[in-house]
Design brief:
The protein is mainly alpha-helical and 225 residues long. It is built from 10 helices and 4 strands; from the N terminus they run ααββαααβαβαααα. The strands form 2 sheets. A two-stranded antiparallel sheet has the order 1-2. It has a two-stranded parallel ribbon with strand order 3-4. β3, α6 and β4 form a beta-alpha-beta unit. α4 packs antiparallel against α5, α5 crosses α9 and α5 crosses α10.
Length: 225
């Protein structure tokens, strides 16, 4: 009887130990699942349906420099200034190039280029002129100084006559654009003589002077277009 009771007590103790131990440990399936989560590879991420690489972990090796820094695209070389035709310096030829290129951008015909170059030659000798009576113009890049009313720039346009601000008119590109804007508003500008078309825009006190520069304008435009 005593032996039987002892065996029962040992069995109960072992069962209790198993029960207590089992309460503190996860089931085998749970352990396996946890192990799988630790060892399974991180799934690839998708962004907008496009497969992307997972973000690197703290222990990942750093990306090579070439991958982290993209080399900037080489900038286009600055266009060479146009070679001046006989009788012009580089500044004059570059201003003429601005006038011609703008007409090309606006899809204006060669006739418009000729009118504009003739006009600028008569008004400023193709120089971007400041005006001694317009102090603000002297603060802008310029290639000479005039003193006719408040006329400034390549085409000697006047801020007081609605052509634009001093800063705008001292920009050769803006000045040429403003000239073309007025030119194309003249209904019959393409049928007028070159000099008359220039005068229709400028309304100069010497209307016949523009025609004096026609041959030179032809050489300049031919060299640039």
């Amino acid at each position: 009887m005593s032996l039987l009771m002892a065996v029962s007590a040992v069995s109960a103790g072992v069962g209790g130990l198993v029960a207590v131990s089992g309460a503190g440990l996860p089931a085998t399936g749970v352990i396996d699942a946890a192990f799988d989560r630790r060892t399974a590879p991180t799934p690839a991420l998708t962004r907008g349906g496009v497969l992307t690489s997972p973000a690197p972990t703290a222990t990942s090796a750093p990306a090579p420099k070439s991958a982290r820094y993209s080399k900037p695209a080489p900038s286009a070389k600055a266009a060479r200034p146009p070679k001046p035709v006989a009788g012009l310096n580089q500044a004059q030829m570059s201003n003429a190039a601005t006038i011609v290129r703008l007409a090309q951008e606006r899809d204006l015909p060669r006739r418009a280029m000729l009118i504009a170059v003739m006009t600028a030659f008569q008004e400023s000798s193709l120089r971007n002129l400041a005006n001694s009576s317009v102090p603000a113009s002297l603060d802008r890049p310029h290639q000479g100084v005039g003193d006719d009313f408040d006329s400034v720039g390549l085409f000697q346009q006047r801020p007081s006559q609605g052509w634009g601000t001093v800063a705008q008119l001292m920009d050769p590109r803006y000045a040429a654009d403003a000239f073309y804007d007025r030119l194309v508003e003249i209904p019959d500008w393409e049928s007028l003589s070159l000099g008359d078309a220039a005068q229709a825009v400028q309304r100069s006190a010497v209307p016949d002077a523009y025609a004096d520069h026609e041959d030179r304008a032809i050489r300049i435009v031919d060299a640039l277009s």
